[in-house]
Amino acid sequence: MRLKVENMSCGHCANAVTKASQNVPGVDDANVDLEAGELAVSGTPDEAALIAAIDKAGYPAQVIEG
């Protein structure tokens, strides 16, 4: 699953998004592409729960590839 994540501008942002997504049940791995503003997640997380966790960390997100 790939998500477009808004407001990521530095390593701290990338770490916050990675940590938030890894706390969602079903996420096996999470990798941020800071330059593209995207997050790639492997596993079988609930899409809404993943978006909510990232939003709660302060970074609005939307799925761009299921």
Descriptive account of the structure:
- With 66 residues, the chain is α+β, with helices and mostly antiparallel strands.
- It has a single domain (2-65), classed as Alpha-Beta Plaits (2-Layer Sandwich), CATH 3.30.70.100.
- 33% of the residues lie in helices and 33% in strands.
- The chain has helices at 11-22, 47-56, and strands at residues 2-5, 27-33, 38-43, 61-65.
- It has a four-stranded antiparallel sheet, with helices on one face.
- α1 crosses α2 (47-56).
- The chain is globular, with a radius of gyration of 10 Å.
Could you write a compact summary of the structure shown?
By secondary structure, this protein is α+β, with helices and mostly antiparallel strands. The protein has two helices and four strands.
List the defining traits of the structure above.
66 residues; alpha+beta; Alpha-Beta Plaits; four-stranded antiparallel beta sheet; 4 strands; globular
- Name the helicity range: 25-40%
N-to-C series of helices and strands: EHEEHE
Assigned CATH architecture: 2-Layer Sandwich
How large, in whole angstroms, is the Cα Rg?
10 Å
How widely separated are the two ends? 5 Å
- Report the principal-axis shape: globular
* Biggest β-sheet description: 4 strands, antiparallel
Write the layout of secondary structure elements.
Elements: E1 2-5, H1 11-22, E2 27-33, E3 38-43, H2 47-56, E4 61-65
Antiparallel strand pairs: 1-3, 1-4, 2-3
